[in-house]
Every structure is written in structure tokens, then in C-alpha cells.
């Protein structure tokens, strides 16, 4: 999957949301992410305890690049892309 989003609440010390239930399991494993389903939701998300900066550093090492970043309310969101090999 060449695109992914990561997000965090306004606090920049983690946790960081790194994927949804359709995310690449190899990337999620590399990040050490855990899959959770919040009570009342009918979907799962992957989370790590690392702050976003550490997650971005790890993703850069495997070829992902930040395309854009924005703030939505108190949530910060980064869109990343990886060239298809």
C-alpha cells in the first residue's frame, strides 16, 4: 500500500494512530503497533505509544515520505507515500 495516514491528538508525546484494519501487517509489525477496537466502533485501528516524530523517523527508514500534514480540531494528521518498487 503506497499511502498511509498517521495521527495524534494535540499532545505530541503519543500515542500515535498508525493505521486502520486494512493497513499492511508488515508495516504495522515493523512499527510495533497493536490493533484495537474502541467500544462502540465497528472498525479497528492500529496504535503505538511512540510520539509522531519517532513514527515518522521509522517510516522514513523504510521509504515513506510525508506528502502533507494538517490539523483538524485537536488532531494532527500526516499523509505519507511510498514509491512502489
Automatic annotation (TrEMBL):
<keyword id="KW-0472">Membrane</keyword>
<dbReference type="GO" id="GO:0005829">
    <property type="term" value="C:cytosol"/>
</dbReference>
<dbReference type="Pfam" id="PF06399">
    <property type="entry name" value="GFRP"/>
</dbReference>
<dbReference type="InterPro" id="IPR009112">
    <property type="entry name" value="GTP_CycHdrlase_I_reg"/>
</dbReference>
<dbReference type="GO" id="GO:0031965">
    <property type="term" value="C:nuclear membrane"/>
</dbReference>
<keyword id="KW-0539">Nucleus</keyword>
<dbReference type="GO" id="GO:0044549">
    <property type="term" value="F:GTP cyclohydrolase binding"/>
</dbReference>
<keyword id="KW-0963">Cytoplasm</keyword>
<dbReference type="GO" id="GO:0009890">
    <property type="term" value="P:negative regulation of biosynthetic process"/>
</dbReference>
<protein>
    <recommendedName>
        <fullName>GTP cyclohydrolase 1 feedback regulatory protein</fullName>
    </recommendedName>
</protein>
<comment type="similarity">
    <text>Belongs to the GFRP family.</text>
</comment>
<dbReference type="InterPro" id="IPR036717">
    <property type="entry name" value="GFRP_sf"/>
</dbReference>
Amino acid at each position: 500500500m503506497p499511502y498511509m495516514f498517521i495521527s495524534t491528538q494535540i499532545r505530541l508525546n503519543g500515542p500515535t494512530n498508525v493505521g486502520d484494519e486494512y493497513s499492511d501487517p508488515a508495516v504495522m509489525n515493523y512499527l510495533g503497533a497493536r490493533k484495537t477496537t474502541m467500544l462502540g466502533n465497528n472498525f479497528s485501528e492500529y496504535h503505538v505509544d511512540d510520539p509522531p516524530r519517532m513514527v515518522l523517523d521509522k517510516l522514513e527508514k523504510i521509504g515513506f515520505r510525508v506528502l502533507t500534514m494538517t490539523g483538524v480540531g485537536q488532531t494532527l494528521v500526516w499523509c505519507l507515500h511510498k514509491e512502489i518498487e
